[in-house]
Amino acid sequence: MRFILLAIFLVFAPATSSALNTGRIFVSNEKSHDIYVYDADFNLIKQIETSQRPRDMKLNAARTLLYVACGDDDIIDVIDVETLEIVDGIPTGPSPEVFEFSPDESQIYVSNEEDSMLEIIDLLARITVHDVPTGAEPEGVIAPAGSNKLYVTSEVADMVHVVDRDKGVVTNNIIVGTRPRRFVITPDTNELWVSAELSSEIYVIDRTSEEITEILEFLPPGFRPEDVTPVGMALTRDGGIGLISLGRANHVAIIDARSKELLSYVLVGRRAWSVALSRDEKIAVVANGLSDDITLIDMQTYRPIRSIPAGRVPHTVVIDD
Amino acid sequence: MKLFLTSVLAIALALANTAKADTLRIGLLRLEQDPRYDEDMAYARIQLRPLGDVSTAVQMAISDMKILTDARGLTTVLSQALADETDLTTVASELASAGVTHLIVDLPAAQVDAVATVLADTQVTVLNTTAPDDWLRSKCHANLLHTAASDRMIADTLVQHAVSQKWKNILVLRGKTERDGTRTDAFMEAAARFRLRIVADREFDLSTNPSMREQNNIALITGGSRDYDAIFMADEIGEFARYVPYQTALPRPVIGATGLVAAEWHWAFERYGAPQVNSRFEDQSKDARRMAWQDWSAWIATRAVLTAFAKARGDELADANALLRAAKLRLDGSKGAQMSFRPWSSQLRMPILLSTHNAIIAVAPLEGFLHQTSTLDALGYDEREFACD
Questions:
Q1: What is the CB neighbour count within 10 angstroms for residue B187?
Q2: ∠B117-B121-B123 over CA atoms, to 5°?
C-alpha cells in the first residue's frame, strides 16, 4: 500500500534502472535473519542473508531497490531487486523497526525502538538531520505526500505523535488505545488509521482536526476479544476495501473502508501480522509470525488460497509487481 | 527511616496544548532490612532473586509514561521511603499525609496487610508488588491491589504445564519455612483440580546430619516411592533445590523452585516487546542488572496507576481510581495480553512465564486451558472459588 503511494509521487530515481515488475514477493524473517524471495507463482527462489533481525521493508519509488530495517545491527540494508544482492547499507540509531521515505525520497524516517527516537536521515548525505524524542518503543511511521506532517506511534505511551518533519519537532500527541502499532492513510488522505494491538481496536483519526472520529472493533467467530490483536493493515488504491490482520485471532478482517462495515473474516496462519496487496489487487499476502508461513488470500472470493512456508518469525511482506 | 523525594523533570518536547499542571504523587515503600533480599541468600537464589531494589523499575515506568502524563498536564512526583518493621505503618501514614495517593509497596504479606489496614481511612490506594500470598487477597482490603501473581496463579501455571506434558504423578519436596508450606498447599490444590496424583509429600532438611539422611540425602528423598513423572519443589531459600536436578533417584524433571520455574517475568522473554523493556531496565539500573519478576511487578504497578490517570475521562482522583479498577484499563505489560484487575480479589490478571534459567518454555494460560470469560482467569482463584475472610 505504501509503495503504491510512493510510486505516484515518483520524483527522481536514485538508481539507474527502472521498475522491473518482477512480480517477486519478499518476506523478511526476524529470527532467521534473511529474506525469502518468491517468484510470481510463489515458488521460493532465493533466501537473502541480511544483517541481524530484518523487519520492515520498503521499495524505492522506482522499485529497483528494497530497503530493509535490521533491528539488531542498527542498519537499513539495501537490496538490488534484480540481482537480489545487498548493495548498500544506511546506518541508523539503535534498533530500527519501521521506516518511511519522504515523498521525494531525499529523507528516510526511522523509528528507533531502543532509544525512543524518530530519526530523520538525509539519504544522500547519510547524516541524521533530526532526532525527535518520542514515547518509549516507537513503531509505526507514515509520511503522507503533500504535507509536512509525519506520524509515529509509541507502543508504550499509547499515543500517536504528530511531527513537523521540516522542523523535527512534535506538534501534537493523540492518545489512542493500548500498544498502537501501524498506520495506513486513506487515498483521499483525510483519514489516518492506527492499529491498537492490545486494546483490539483500529482508531480512525481525522487528519485535519487530529481528532479520533471512529474506533473499529473486530471479533471473528469462536475467538475471545483479548485474542484480537490487530497490527498490519492495507487499503486498496481506490480506498474501497481495507484489510486488517487480527494477530492471535488468526484471521484477517476485510472491511468496506468507507462505511467501515465488515465484509468477511478470512482464516490465515497463527498471529497474522503484515498484510500486502498485489498490484492488481487480486491477491493479498499475510505474514504469520507464530506459524512461520505466509497465507495468500483471494480478494474476489475472500477465501484463503494456500499457505507457504517462510523463515523464522516472518515480519513484513513486500510485492514487486 | 529515610524519606527522600525524587521529582521527575520534563524533557524538552514540544506539546501543542499544554494543559494546566497537576501533581500526581506516588510513593514507594520498602523494608530497610528485607529478609527476602538478604544478600547471603542471593547466591543460591541467583535465578529467582534480584540483587537490587525495585525503585529502578518504578522510575522506569514514570519515564516510560512521561509523554502520556505530560499530555494530560500531569507531573509525577515519586516519594521513596525505607522503614524498619517497627515504624513501617508510621511511615506509611506520613506518606499519606504528604499527599501520596498511590503507594507501591515491596513488602512481605504481613507488612502489606498492616500498611493497608493503617491506610484504610485515607485516600491512598496501596499496590502490592511482591507478596504472592493468597490469604492477603482474601483480606479484601478495599484500598489494596495486587500486581504480584498469587501463589495459586503460580501453582496453576505449573499444573497446566504438567497436565499438557502428561506428568500425572508428582513427587512433592518442600522446605520448612512458612512460605514453602504456602507454596506447597497452593500447588496441591491446583494439582487436585486437574487430578494429578501426589505420590509423596516430603519435607527436606538442609543439614548433613546422618540421622536425618532420609530428608537431606537427595537420592533417598527422591527414592523409595512409587514412580513419578516430575518433582515439584517449594524452596524459598533455594539452597536445597539447586542441588536436586541430575541427582534424583529416578531421572525426572524438577519444577517449581528450580529447573522449570513459573514467574511474572524473565529476562529471556523475547516476544511482545519484552526485549525492549529488558534493555531499558538494564540501561537504567545502576549495575546493569537483569529485570527480575519483582522489578516487573513494581513497573507494572506504576504503569497501571499512570495509565489510569492519563486515560481517565475526568481529572478527579476518583476518575483515575475508577479506571484503575475497571476491565477497560487494558494494561499492557509486554506479555502480549491486555490486563486488568479482577474485581473480586483485586488481583492483576496476567500471563505467567514458565522458564528455565535461560529460556522461556511456555507462557500460561497454555493452549487448551479455557475459561468462560477470560482465559487469563484460568490462573488463580476464579470468582466462584474466591471468598473474602
A1: 29
A2: 110
Enclosing H/E stretch for B93: helix B88-97
Domain co-membership, B140 together with B103: yes
Interface residues of B toward A, Cβ cutoff 8 Å, are: 11-17, 63-68, 71, 273, 276, 279-280, 307, 310-311, 330-332, 336-338, 374-376
Assess if residue B69 is contained within a domain.
yes
What global pTM score does this model have?
Answer: 0.83
- Say if A169 is an interface residue toward chain B (CB within 8 Å): yes
Q: Quick one: pLDDT band at residue B5, thresholds 50, 70, 90?
A: very low
In this structure, the answer to whether residues B178 and B129 fall within a common structural domain is no
b/e code A112-137 from CB counts within 10 Å (16+ = b): bbbbbbbbbbebeeeebebbbbbbbb
* Interface contact flag, B332 A172, Cβ < 8 Å: no
pLDDT score, position B334: 94
What's the domain count of chain B?
2
If you average pLDDT over residues B286-303, what whole number do you get?
Answer: 93
Do A178 and B330 make contact, defined as CB atoms within 8 angstroms?
yes
pLDDT tens figures, B171-181: 999 999 999 99
B45 and B97 fall within a common domain: yes
Question: Locate cell 484477517: which residue?
Answer: A252
The verdict on residue B174 lying in a domain is yes
B207 phi/psi in degrees, rounded to 5? -75, 175
Based on the fold, state whether residues B172 and B273 are members of the same structural domain: no
B64/A175 Cβ within 8 A? no
For chain A, which domains are there? 2-226 (2.130.10.10)
| Residue A161 with chain B: CB contacts under 8 Å | 67
- Do B71 and A175 count as a contact with CB atoms less than 8 A apart? yes
- Reported ipTM: the value is 0.71
Helix locations, B119-237, DSSP H:
134-138, 151-164, 178-193, 213-216, 218-221
Closest partner residue to A170 (CB to CB) among B14, B66, B273 is B14
Average pLDDT value for chain B: 90
CB contact under 8 A, B330 and A134: no
| Distance in Å, alpha carbon of A102 to nearest chain B alpha carbon | 22
User: Mean pLDDT throughout B117-144?
Assistant: 97
| Pair B172, B137 in one domain | no
A178 and B CB contact within 8 Å: yes
Phi, psi of B201 (to 5 degrees): -125, 110
CB pair distance less than 8 Å for A158 and B68: yes
**Own/partner pairs, A3-7, CB within 8 angstroms, 24+ separation:** A3/A58, A3/A59, A3/A61, A3/A63, A3/A318, A4/A237, A4/A279, A5/A144, A5/A145, A5/A185, A6/A58, A6/A59, A6/A60, A6/A61, A6/A101, A6/A103, A6/A105, A7/A61, A7/A63
pLDDT value at residue A48: 97
Do residues B381 and B150 make contact, with C-beta atoms less than 8 angstroms apart? yes
Sort residue B259 into left (φ over 0), alpha (ψ -120 to 50) or beta.
Answer: left
* Run of H or E including B309: helix B293-311
Measured CA to CA, the distance from residue B355 to residue B365 in angstroms comes to 14
Q: Which regions in chain A score pLDDT beneath 50?
A: 1-16
Dist CA B163 CA B159 (whole Å): 6
Domain interval for residue B170? 152-263
Co-location of B144 and B161 in the same domain:
no
B68/A175 CB distance under 8 A: yes
